[in-house]
Amino acid sequence: MKPFHCLFKHLLGSVALAATLGAVPAMAQSSYNVGATSTGVPFTFLDIKTNKLQGMMVDTVTAVGNKAGFSVNIQQTPFAALIPSLTGNKIDIIAAAMLKTEARAQIVDFSDPVYSYGEGLFVNAQDTKSYKTLDDLKGEIVGAQVGTVFVDALNKKGGFKEVKTYDSVADMMRDVGLGRIKAGFGDRPIVAYQLSQGANPQVRLVKEYQSTLMGDVCLVIRKADPKLMERLNKAISELKADGTLARIVEQWKLN
């Protein structure tokens, strides 16, 4: 049996080692689950050839992860379920065409902007009328994608016969093309890209329409995670400085 003073010395050494290890900062997380939608071309969409989510925001969050030293696991998530999935810890980061708003900022935190844009208006291709503002659509049935800022904005504006909501821009375009609603509102880059790809020849983008809901697209995380936010913003700053972010925007024809 060891003498008491030897045991005591060994115990003190163990305590000191534990204290030293406890003082070492925890390793930064090396992988994050990222929520993205399958219907937000060209920001996020499902490539049917590879069955993987692709797009500008997928490339952006991947580049941010590479720069910041973490990998990303992209998970398909409906737009309306993005924030609930984030706050419910099912995902760690949102990478989608989600505009920063005061209401959303009360629930989640937004990184520095990676892109900025406003709403786009589209009508039936046979409708040649000029629509410059929302006032030009008074008394009409219009549509917007559920979960977007456009729904609240249109309802707040008022003056419409009805504001219908849709799960996707494609569904909304279908109803505009069929004459079921007068006009649809969506993220202008998404609408412009889809129409340029021949998504629905029965619909046209109203080029003279003046966007009123300009906003920033950011990466989104849960509140009270300053360390992750610092990693994201540092990486975004570096990607802007070295031209990587600009190249991603150019690749997806968003400039």
Automatic annotation (TrEMBL):
Top-rank lineage group of the source organism: Bacteria
InterPro entries for this protein: Solute-binding_3/MltF_N (IPR001638)
Signal peptide: 1-28
Keyword list, A-Z: Signal
Domain Solute-binding protein family 3/N-terminal: 31-255
SUPFAM superfamilies: Periplasmic binding protein-like II (SSF53850)
Protein name: Amino acid ABC transporter substrate-binding protein
